[in-house]
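Just curious: can you write a single protein's sequence together with how it folds?
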Amino acid sequence: MTLPAVDVVVIGAGAGGGIVAEQLSLAGQEVVLLERGHRQNWAETRHDELRSQRVTVLGNAFGPDDEHYVRLVETTPGEFRKVLPSEGAYNNIAACVGGGTLSYGAMAWRYMERDFKMRSTYHAPAGSTLDDWPITYSDLEPFYTKAEWEIGVSGQAGANPFEPHRSKPYPMPPLPLNTEASLLFAAAGRLKWHPFPIPMAINSVPYQDRMACVFCPYCVGFACEVNAKNSTAVTAIPRALATGHCQLRTEAVASKILTNDGSKATGVEYFKDGQIYQQPCRLVVVCCSATETPRLLFNSANKLFPRGLGNNNDWVGRNLQGHAYSGAYGLMEHDVYDGLGPGARVACCDFSHGLPGGLIGGAMIANEFIRLPYLFSQAAVPPDVPRWGIEHTRHVRTYYKRTVSAQGPVQELPVFDMRVELAPDLKDAWGIPTVRLSGKRHLNDLEVGKFIAAKSEQWLKEAGATRTWKKLPGTGISGGQHQAGTCRMGNDPKTSVVNKDCRIHDIDNVYIADGSVHVNNGGFNPSLTIQALAYRTSAGILKELGRSQGAR
């Protein structure tokens, strides 16, 4: 069924897509926002830890579901197996209005100036495609500021001495320190480090007619029952719909971008309610994630791009990155858990760059979000404690409130063969070819991980931990909810997929606004950078649409 034409189709209603839909519809463009999941409310999931986005024993509360989706994942070199979304190896991104921002932990980090010029700062070691971004931090700074104020971020400007320059303070003060964070803050000071409150996309005071955080421990992995967590589901998307220029179509699964014989997209084909629809449009913005965006481009191959849109130089799906999380756990002699969510409150950026021994990159280190009982029992007990039985029960009972942790998202080096590609002979429930993931991390990531874990352990011991143990990354596929890099931006079409405005090279009217355009992923949670780029990309699109309308 062919529908009446609109100006723009945005595919994916997550961190980037929600913002693009808002910005374009506020400017009067007629926008269709497609989302493969549905519009959730808190009552659907509530405080069910076994269906949270971190624990999927009973399925993914925020999608995608095991009945409709599957992937192939390389589990050992050269060997692949089918993986469902409820399995960690799937590298899941939520499927719902708001995407991962509905259930994320909401750390809202700016990347550092050096993160945008990694090749110039260090070099590109053998086995890595490390490069500079085609834009600088200064180019993105106004849009970081816009994201902080439009989405809502609480923090303390100037508290982090390593923070790059900013044109405006945070719109809200930081969340207050809880018991664990207070101990760690003091310990970091004794180590001569530079602790500061974590910037969070969570209301510390009432903001934009929404409540302040009630310090519920059911935060990361859950929707917020008072809408104090600033997802695009409660910020940008409602504002887009209020314009009357944006149509949100949920449970609409995009199968391909339609093109003419030249280098223009003409619309999007999608499935909804058992039917195939064709939505004509003047421009397409893809915001599906670093694994699903390449899949859509591959499945949109045409005569001009036989290997997939934008893929004539074989860079679509390459350089998949997540974060090589590293850190440590510690046991205290007294209770440090006070039940005040979200838990993560204090961080240090002393080791984001400038590590010894020629190591490239680094990570911020922060205390961890509250681990609820099931996840705690699986992930936060010492390696010598059994995972079941009476000894396990005794340990959890004794140390649930006495366990501290600190960790950091190690900035991974992009690797050409860490990749997303179409899986041969495997399709989803709609008959759309699915993907397979393969590759391994660069050795630098593992060495940086060891360094960050050692510093995390040092921090916990200084805070009073009587026993500690490290958490180190493995060598395998990286992605997860911080996935990025598979459609990187660059000036040279031979080594990138989109230009500095996030438009696909050689295609006049297809843009990408998700983490896949990141040249590298920084040593920070990427959501605020995705959103800042979405604001910047939207501004560029509106300029281009204005030029084309003026020429008619």
Observations:
- The domain at 6-550 is CATH 3.50.50.60 (FAD/NAD(P)-binding domain).
- The chain has one domain: 6-550.
- The CA atoms of residues 465 and 523 lie 26 Å apart.
